[in-house]
Design goal:
With about 300 residues, the chain is an alpha+beta fold. Helices cover about 25% and strands about 25% of the residues. The structure holds pyridoxal-5'-phosphate.
């Protein structure tokens, strides 16, 4: 990964190489952390963090769901993020806030283990590659089932839960595919290992609804709104595995990957990125980069040093 200079750690900026934790950090042993993946894009008005408030609110919700009290307010975390982007001099970057139980108490019930918070930022290109964004990726239905709400909390973005995504992604990568698509215990389609999934069926957009074991993706929400604003019908409902194979178009959306067409699922050809996918991808790119007037309210602009009054 590409380093930057500073990481915001527990209230202060620390040089990248010094941002360290103790080996008995609770989160390292048990996965007791909650995090976000956020992006800032270069715009005419400076780096713009896409739907920052939504990401911070989801972080807080994930923390609550796992009994982690965030020691900073969302406004403090927002300011910390602005500060670390500014100090690193980045125009655009990936942003990783994480709150985790630190060093101090072991065992599964460790309410006195301190909660540590860091915000790291660094340059990171499209997660599934620029070629994938342009021409589509090859996906494979995973043999691993998506975590169920009977045993974990799919709507939380918690560190330990990602072992499920890692098993699926690793299986897919080792078999030569770009991404995995996970089904739930009943064989209903959930999502990619790090993205939500959309299909086009008979000209309508279809995506799993909130009762599915999905992360309630912020990109998903944005694409639904853009699609509806463009006049498309979006249906949130269960999707069967076989529908993946007969879809007219399919694409994945997530902060790290952005909007990525799927050109093949389980070696079944879906063809070049279709028209609806291309229209939505173009509008979504405009929204991310501050070129869509109607979605400017989604951007949290990081003020530049020259504009900051001392
Ligand atoms: C499992 C999973 N599903 C969906 C998403 C997409 O969520 P978002 O659009 O909020 O990045 C992500 C990425 O955070 C994810 O990890």
């Amino acid at each position: 990964m590409e380093k930057s200079e500073w990481i915001w750690m527990n209230g202060e900026l620390v040089p990248w190489d010094d941002a360290k934790v103790h080996v008995l950090t609770h989160g390292l042993h048990y996965g007791t952390g909650v995090f976000e993946g956020v992006r800032a894009y270069k715009t005419d008005r400076g780096p713009a963090i896409f739907r920052h408030r939504d990401h911070l609110e989801r972080l807080q919700k994930s923390a609550e769901l796992y009994y982690i009290d965030l020691p900073y307010s969302l406004e403090e975390l927002r300011e910390a993020t602005h500060e670390v982007i500014r100090r690193n001099g980045l125009d655009s970057c990936y942003i990783r806030p994480i709150a985790f139980r630190g060093y101090g108490e072991m065992g599964l019930y460790a309410p006195t283990a301190p909660v540590e918070v860091i915000v790291a930022v660094w340059p990171w290109g499209a997660y599934l590659g620029e070629d994938g964004k342009r021409n589509g990726v090859r996906a494979k239905v995973s043999s691993w089932r998506r975590i169920s709400p009977d045993s974990l909390i799919p709507h939380a973005k918690a560190s330990g839960q990602y072992l499920n995504s890692i098993l699926a992604k690793t299986e897919a990568a080792k078999a030569g595919y770009d991404e995995a698509i996970l089904l739930d215990q009943n064989g209903v389609v959930c999502e990619g290992s790090g993205e939500n999934v959309f299909l086009v069926r008979e000209g309508e957009l279809v995506t799993p609804g909130h009762t599915a074991s999905i992360l309630d993706g912020i990109s998903r929400k944005s694409v639904i709104q853009i699609a509806e604003d463009l006049g498309y019908t979006v249906v949130e409902r269960d999707i069967s595995r076989s529908e993946l194979y007969v879809a007219e178009e399919a694409f994945l959306v997530g902060t790290a990957a952005e909007l990525v067409p799927v050109r093949e699922i389980d070696d079944r050809d879906l063809g070049e990125p279709g028209e609806i996918t291309r229209v939505l991808a173009a509008k979504y790119e405009d929204a991310l980069h501050g070129r869509a007037q109607e979605y400017l309210e989604w951007l949290d602009i990081v003020e530049q040093p020259s504009k900051v009054t001392s």
